[in-house]
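Example record

Each entry pairs one chain with its bound ligand, zinc ion.
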Amino acid sequence: MTSDVARGFRKTAGEVYRAEALDGFSWLTHGFGTRHSRHPDNLATLHQIHSDIAVCADGRRGLIGDGDALIADRAGSLVAVKTADCLPILMADVRRRRVAAVHAGWRGTVREIAAKTLAALDANPADVHAALGPAIGPCCFEVGADVAAQFKKWFPERGDLDRRTTLDLAEANRRQLLAASVPAEQLYVAGLCTRCGEEFHSYRRDRRHAGRMFSWIGITASETCGGSAAAPRSSQP
Ligand SMILES: [Zn+2]
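Structure tokens for the complex follow.
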């Protein structure tokens, strides 16, 4: 629900949501757009295909390929994903100063795009902070038994995943990152439902009329970072 903004997120000028914890890192910039916001110029984006493919932007801009997560590892690089109910995740390795934007719908969640992006970042999970933005909430995300059954790994306590039910996409991804050893206190969940909130685009609500919202993260500081020289890599050949 829109009134239920989780502590740690706030709406800033230009109708953009931001995670206060990520704002604490002066070398990065980020935002979760709404239907009323504008996104920065010079974003790198992907043709999103509900895959588990993470791509390193390598400083490129514009539409740079197929996949569902983009990694930036150099100053001036801004990466983005587009969503309308799917979950946008913005993550940062705050030691090596690398960032990633992830598009996680139910297919990407099942394919573990968040965990695979974390692996592609080649980060120590203890150095990673991740913000899980506005997405369709458990109030509205009703799925059939075929989809629900694929979430048993993330919700082992639930006995209703063999029938039509509702899912919490953000919680599934939060658990996926927890399982990958990202500390719980470094995971920030907006708790905003895109279908309930009129300020968001929602595919389930607006169907073919739905627009898409941009969520972006980038590196602003030009100072070089420490850590190893290992290059981020695609999670798939
Ligand atoms: Zn809702």
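The longest strand covers residues 87-93.
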